[in-house]
Amino acid sequence: MAVCIAVIGKDNSPKYIKCTDEANALQFHYKIHTSIDIVEEKLNIGNKTAADVRELFLGMLYSTEEYKIFGYATNTKIKFIIVLQSSNATLRDNEVRMMFRKLHIAYANAVSDPFYIPGDQIQSKIFNSAVMDIMGLLVDEKKILK
Amino acid sequence: MSDLPAELTARPLALIGLFGLDIYNSVHHSIWDAFVNNRRPDGAAVQFKLISSTHEFPTVKPKRNSYEWYIPKGILKRNWMNKYLNEVLAVIVVFYDLDWHDPQWNEKKMECASRVQSLRAALEGRNTKIAIVLIQNELLSPPGTEDLVATERATALCAACELTSKTLYFLPYADHLLGYTFRLEHVLYDLAQSFYHQEYRIVKSHREQLNKTAHQYLFVRHQFKMAFLNELKQDQNTAHKHYQQAYNNLLDIRMVDTNSLEIKTVASFINYKLSRLMFSLKLPKEAIAQFRSHVDRFMTRTGPKELMFEHHTWICTQYSIFAELFNEAIRQGLPAVQTQHPGYYFQMAANHALQRHNACKELCNNVDVYPDPDPLAGEEKLEFYGQRPWRPGKLNAEPADLTREAAAIQALQYKEKTTVNHSMIRIGLLGSAISQFKIYRCPRKRRLLVVEMAEEYFGCKDYGKVLTLLMHMLWEYRSERWPVLLTDVLKSALKAAYLSASIKDYLILALEALGPSTMFSIERKTNIFENIINILQNKPPNSEPNLSEDLKDCAVDKWLAQVNQNESFIFKIDDNMASFIDVKACFTQPKYTVNSTVTIEVFVRNLYHAEVELSKISVTVTGSGYKSEIPIIDSHDRNLIFSAKEVKKYLCQFEAPQLDDSLEIQINKVNLNLGNDKRCSVILQFSASGRETNLLDRMYPEIQQLRGGLFDSVRPLITAKIEQEESNVTIITECKQPALLGEWFSVKILVSSSDKISNVNIFVNLIQDNNSEQLTELSLNMKEKQSSVIFEIDTIEPTSSVEQVVFVRAHNVGDRNFLIKAEYSRCRKKKDSKEITYSFSVVKPFEVSTQFYTILYEPLTKGFIDEPLFIMPHIVSTSPWPIKIEDTSIELGNSLIEERSLSQESILKNIVLEESEAGTDVYCIVPKIGSEQPTSTGVYTIKWRRANDENTIVTSSSVTLTPLWVEDAVIGLETRLPPHGWVRTPLCVSYFIKNHSDYLITLRLTMEANEAFMFAGHKQIDICILPESEKKVEWILLPLIAGFVALPSLSLTVPTDEEYKLNKTRLAEVIERSIPRHVYIMPKSQTIEE
User: What residues pair up with B988 in beta bridges, in sequence order?
Assistant: First the structure.
């Protein structure tokens, strides 16, 4: 499953970053930050054709020995980044897409909060639990509760 | 690529020996030069070697007949590649000076043959090809002719040398030496290729004798040799195939600790060759895939644990070698993309360099002695690549000598610890990676690598470099607002600044660390703040956390030395750095007049979580040629102590300066002093607009309004205009628009001022456009006409006004624009001026049209000589103002006279015409001369003035009246008829017919009766009229009906034979206009009747 999920604002500053492994948060922050390079490049090329504009999923940005990093950019230039473990080879492209779609919906709900000021950090319990769900962390909690 | 042997990385070139060239001989030397030094870029892939007569050729190993009992001791022999690159000749060329027609042909032939024979003997066992080149001085026989002697002797020479004629060449030493050597080079290259092919066949043939159990190493060796020979042959595809097989064979070998280094070394060699060939064959994707699988495969084969660093070294080398090959391929034209370029490989290499360093720290820390005797002795002389010097050629099966093994490991660890500068390796690799990521537009990746590089510099205690690198990166991370990353960078930078005891850097970083966009904990921030205060009070700061004791001690000493220098320091920190204080400043107004008080509001916000005290706040204001620092106004309740998150507002006031040329001043900086004013202080310089909010503002300006809060809602206004004091002089004009054409139009100019002004000059100028200037006159007194008017007023007292009337006369209609400019001196002798533009329109006062009527008051289009007519000038007023007509007069044209030239008064005199009212004048005139053209009737002059203004003077306007056609009249006809008649009362009508011509005219008069009259007289009569005479014809009419009754119509006809004298139509026209048609007949009074 995803080990890190991030929402990047249109000014390329982080709006929300969640890692499964908080001890290595710094490392993930750097990874996500560097992946913006590739997102930016893809968005620049993508602008050229009308068909590509509708496709928000940017595919895999890059992979390292340990991780695969996927990107997604909304029409308002909000970027979503999901880091997956490279060892998890079973995850298909479509599943990653689904994760992004869920994340996008959760994000849209979070920013629809009338008290949310665009450009601020996202601090929403519901969004947080949606992210946890995508990362597969929430399921565990439920199990424990049962 | 330092880790690879030179023979591996060298480009394989066919080796060709040149024998018999004496380079002290100038001819031979130039030939040698032509071969070696004047290589063309498209030349064959060959290397020439000069072979002297005393050259010793490498000995040939005895040929093995069977591999059955042969156990190989290693994979690749160290000397083999070098031997084939530089020693084993593919072709040897014997140069010999011999002309076909040499007198000593036979002797020389024999000598040449003996040389070839001795060479052949020396090369016994090798397949080296032998060729002969005869250096000839004589001219070539012309093409087409066959030199029989030459042919015959060539055959003889070949026979003597036991060579085929295909290996005999001759080189004419003449003009085109380079052309000949070039051709010769290609021929020799072909020979060399056949040599390498032959060698390749030989190695290939060994294969059948090998078996998989005992000869695994040989499988690899032979494939490698075959591939290498094909490379020498420049057959890259075949070479690639064999290298691939060699690589696959290598993978089949079971790897254990004893042979791991050898296998990895050979794998690295083969992989290098494979990658290089694949890039060269334009297969970059395959090269990358091969490299990936290569690294993946060996990543886990670490070899012995004690030598872990060797494994990381190997992986690191693999990455860096590949990165360099990739980079080389890009230089040769391979396109790379953002996600696949050498930078990634350099970065991986750097990562493994770090791991190597870590492994070294872990494993070699306790190794302090180099073992004796040296277990690594003879490393250079080993027979095979990648073998251990302490157990060369040992096979896997033999048990290891444990003590030697341990000593050797210790030796390696000692060497790793003492001779390798790990940091520099990593820094070098990171540097290469950084430049690559820069090329491929990955700025953020580049930043990360710079941070890593700084970390490495930190490791080798080069704190200056650490700070330089991190300071740059701070700016970048801050601008993108990544708090976690910013905090990380700040942490490292703070440590470096602390350890290097750099006061300024430490302060800058500490100030930023306290700011809102970092993630430091409250305690940490408090510590940092204390440190700032310590430094400002000349005390060393407390140490940064997580530093080793020895580093700390060293740093404390440095700090004490710094602090005890007792020098005062004042740092200026500009707004390139962030801090925990936010500042905004704004002018209270966008405009100020000179000498008025300018007020600047300064908002200071403390973002630190505790109380902060500043020592001074000032504002620097600049304009062109103006700069001044203005302190804030002190007030007791607004001290400079800020509690947590407090916002305070200060005011700053100064008198607006008089600027030289520009009109703007701006708030350049806001300066905050922190710490003791005199000795240790930091001046924080802020731009007035505030930084953070600026960035957000650009993104979502309207949304920032939502945040509320005093500070956020302040809109910075950092520039203000300085204007000259507004002059209180006013110029007012008064007039009755529009002006009338031709009149002296009066414009009253009123100048008033609230201050006393003197030496007032007022200029009135027409703004010229479309040639109106000649048709417009200005005057002060309606007499002198001027094109511009100047008048002077000595002084104007406050709140009074001075007026002056200026007259304008326009001679055509349209708009007129005037510039009225007042120049004056103010109280302090300051010249000033004010100008206004004024415009008015000019319209015609009236329209004059001309009407013509006959005596009978019928409208008339033509006049006739001697026939009187009325001319009526018709004046229609078009002026919005009432016009009083003072007089009118007419001056008739030459061909006209006035019927009664009585000098009577004009009937229009003293008439006042309002707008669109009309008046008509009338004159009776008689044309005297006819003409073919319309004759001018005259000029009508109207003297008029405005009726509503007593001060105006009379204007005289003249109008040319409409011209009139005047024709000759041969016959004149005049009717005498009483104005009215009575029913049944006779009345007399007489017609006077005049003959104006010089002919006798005969006319027939016919009177046609009608029912309204009875008449007495001739019904029809012919009359003759003498030239220039008149005849009277009379009738008595008795009216029968009352009313406006048609008269009996008279008609005149000309006899047909006299028509040349008088035109019939002309005659009809005369009758038409001269004879009345109707007459009023009154009814007879009944009473009289009775």
Answer: B1036
